Every structure is written in C-alpha cells, then in structure tokens.
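Data availability (excerpt). The following record was deposited with the supplementary files.
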Amino acid sequence: MRTTTSPRRGAHRLPAHGNDGVLTQLQIRDFAIVESLDLELEAGMTVLTGETGAGKSILVGAVGLVLGDRADADAVRHGAERAEVSAGFDLATNPAAQAWLCAQELDADEECVLRRTLSREGRSRAYVNGRPVPLQALKAVGTLLVDIHGQHEHQSLLRPEVQRHWLDACGGHLELAREVERAWRRWKGLEREHAALLADASDGAARTELLTYQLRELEALGLTEDELPLLEEEHRRLANAERLIGTAQETLAALYEDDERSVAAVLGGALAAVQELQELDPRLAGIGEYLENARIQVDEAADELRTYLDRLDLDPERLRRIEERLSTIHDLARKHRVAPAELPARRLALEEELHALTQVDVRRTDLESVRAAAHRAFEDAAGQLGTRRKRAAARLSRRITEAMQDLGMPGGRFEVGLRTATEGGPGGHEGVEFLVSANPGQPPRPLRKVASGGELSRISLAVQITSLGEEALPSLIFDEVDSGIGGAVAETVGRHLRSLGGRHQVLCVTHLPQVASLAHHHLQVDKHTRRGTTRTRIRVLDPGERVGEVARMLGGLEITPQTLAHAEEMVQRGRG
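Predicted structure:
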C-alpha cells in the first residue's frame, strides 16, 4: 500500500501553528498494511479521520514501535522482508530530552531521529540519530518525547513515579520534593558510612594488634633510608678485603718499590736520557715535560695506594655484624613483601593505618551525631511534603472528578490515593496511586486496572485538563479518545483537546465530527483496492475538503445539503 505524495520530498507539510512542532516527521515502510508513508507534522491539534479499518490506528502503532514498544513479526507487511519506522523530533523546547541524549553521547544539535527496524524473523534493531542502541535506550528517550493515551503499553500516567511527580507538580511543591530526595540521599549515605565504620570496628581490634606487632619489629630494626646502601658498600669492601690488599700491594710494587723495574724507575731513566738529548735537539723539550708529568702522577698514585693500604683492614667481626644486619633487613622485607629499600616507607604506611584505626571510635561518635541530624532533616522535609500532598490530593481529586463529568463519565470518581510508609524513601513517606471509579456505585480501582481504553484516554485527558497540561510531554497522542461518547460531550472533548493543542502538539485519532471540526489540522486516511492490491493514502485536507469529511462523519454515505451546511457551520465555529 502506498500513500499519495507531494512533489517536495514525498512529504505532506501542515501549515504552521503556534509553537514549534515536536514530532516533525514520520516515515513508515512495510508496516502492517502500509507500504510507504512520509508525513511531516506541525504543532497544534491534528486529527486523523477515516473509515474504520483505513489504517488510522496503524500510525499510532508505528509511533509506539519507534518509541520502543514490543515488536511483533506479524507487523511486517505481507510480501516484505522487514518493516521500518523512523520519527524525527525537534527538541528546541524539550531540554530534558536534549540532556538525556547529551549524557548518552547521542546528541545532534536540537534534533532527534529515532529508527526501528523489524525483520520477518522477528529480529529488531533500534537507532538514535543514526547510531545503533539497545532497545532500552530507545524506550528511555521515548518516555521524554511522546505520551500515547489509550495504549496501556506507552501510557506514562500509569507509572507510579509519574503519578507522584504529577501530584507534586500540580501541588506546586516540586522543589520541596527535590529537597526531600536530597535529604534522604544524604541521610542514607551517612547510614552506609556508619555501617561501614561498625564493620571496620569489629575487625579493628585484631588489625590493631597485628599492626602494633609489625611496627615494633620495624621500630626495633630502626632502618633509615640511607643506611642500606652504606651497609651494602661496606659489606662488599670487607668481604673482598684480602683481594683488595693483595692487588693494591702488587700495584704499589709495580709502580714504585721495585728499584730496577718499577714504573717510576723506568720513567726516571727515560727522563734523564731525554734531558741529556735536549742539548742536542731542543725539540725534545716537550717530550721531557710529558715524562716529568707522568713521573709525578706515578708518585701521587703510589702515595694514595700507601694511604689506602694503611686504612684498609681485615675485620672479620665487623663483617659478621654487617651480614647479620643485612640478613635481618632482608627477612623483614620478605615478611612484608616489599623490597629491602622500601621498609622505611612501609613503616610510615603502617603508622598511618594504625593512627586511622585509633580514630575510628572518634569518627563513629561524630558520625552518629551528623547522621541523626540528617535523619531529622529528612523527616522534617518529608513531613512538610506529606502535609502539602494531602491538601493537593484532595483538591485535585475533586477537580478531576468534575472534569470527568464533562467528558462523558457521569458519576465517575477520581481519587489521588496516598499510602504512607514508616521509613520513607527518596520520594518521602507517601506512595501515590491514582484510583478511579468509572461508573456510579463502583469502588475506586487503580488506574492501571481500568479495562476500557476509551475510559483510560478520557481520564488521562481529564488529568491533563486539570493540570493545564504543564507537566505533559511535548507531544500527546490520543487514540480514539472519543470512544463511547457523542453530542455535547464530544464537543467538550474536542475543545479540551484544542486547548491542549495551544500548548503542546496533539495528534488525535477520532470518529467524531465534533472533535474533528475543532482541530487546527486535519488528515484523512483512506484505502482503496486497484488491480487486486489494496492501497492507502493520507491527505492533508484544505478548508473545503474538511467540510466534506466532517459531513461524511455526520451523515455517512448519504451527504445532503443540510449535512454539508451543518458541517460547514461546525468547521467555522471550530476556527473561532
């Protein structure tokens, strides 16, 4: 099935209205009975109308798929290998979504493109701004973009955390709720630290005893940072003293003490011969200087060797003491699993650890006082929040109940239920749950257990109306919100939707002419069969075509002049 396309990139452009649109583009390929669809959207209230089975709700299902709803391989169009849905969003007025994308490193200026593919074998892939992501990430960003009313799988108002946030926002105490959460987290952080200190204290005595023993050993050793290199140097000298003495004596004899063959004697003879020859050839004077300097150097070296031998002594006892000292150092190093040179640093580390252990009792006493103060701060803030929540819950329960009467649910009742917990949590002491009785005489039940999708949609609409839509997501989709109503109630629903469309983007699937006539934009979905192939199309209706479509919705197959006149009157009134 193929939709009709316009010359400009195959997409329909709706006239601009009000604020910037959020869901700006929807592309569908081979999904359900849709072969190809390219649709561009604007802000305001847009209605989708058409005969039953034309494919209106398929668009809602496609949006749900691209927002992370469960995928069913049967959704792939017959004859195709895979389905694909892509949705583009303008995030200029959605800082929460921008922040999420930035945190995930998926941001792309102020735009967001979600894409989902589904193969006939049931394999699904998700993409955000062209990058593959887990399905959970698609769901996470989807909860910040679109709220689909009437579909339980993607109805944010069914989530307990959203219900609590909504109550706090409508009650005007969001900042107090944040303060409560901060106070709770501080208190719980101190609780964890206190528990850790208690656990440390149970093991602290044994650890303190071990550290004390190890420190006594290291203190008794008394090793300084510069001692080990000096000990090792002295040990090498004493251990090789005999060799050093023998070699030094031999060298001294070769340099000086052998009267005939010593280096000094040979140099002296050579110097005398050269000095004698200098009288014959003065050019030998330089050589004589070299030989004189060499003789002087040999004399000085011999003097140094004599001094060295005088000081060098065999001292077996000193060698034994040094070897014992080095053995003790190496034994302790192996015991502490460090290099011998690291023993002084190891001693300092053990001293610091022992000092920290001795401070645990002091820290625990101080922490108990701080923890108690943090708990009192949480309880005080949570108590204030609980009082304000009770007042807000009573007020909003009454207002939403009144709104339900206008929306075709006479006798219906809405309650913001509060469940009080003893200890409390980051949300305070209250659990919030929306309860509803759709019909007179029925006890209120949790909103998530309301069976009728139409009732759920209208209740959600009543909540949005009551809160003036301030806490709604930027884009709201109402799937057949008018189910089971008509007449003046239908017009009331339409006017409320149009009012929401002044602040948010509203997309509404409807069968009611009263709702359709009040929209800012009108899309018609139809299908037809040609040459054995069913085709569907979406058309943007101009003012004249809107009158015809509303007339069809009023009069069915037979459209009379009176029907057209009535339809035109409704459309004109809707523009006012």
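Summary of structural features: The chain has 17 helices and 15 strands.
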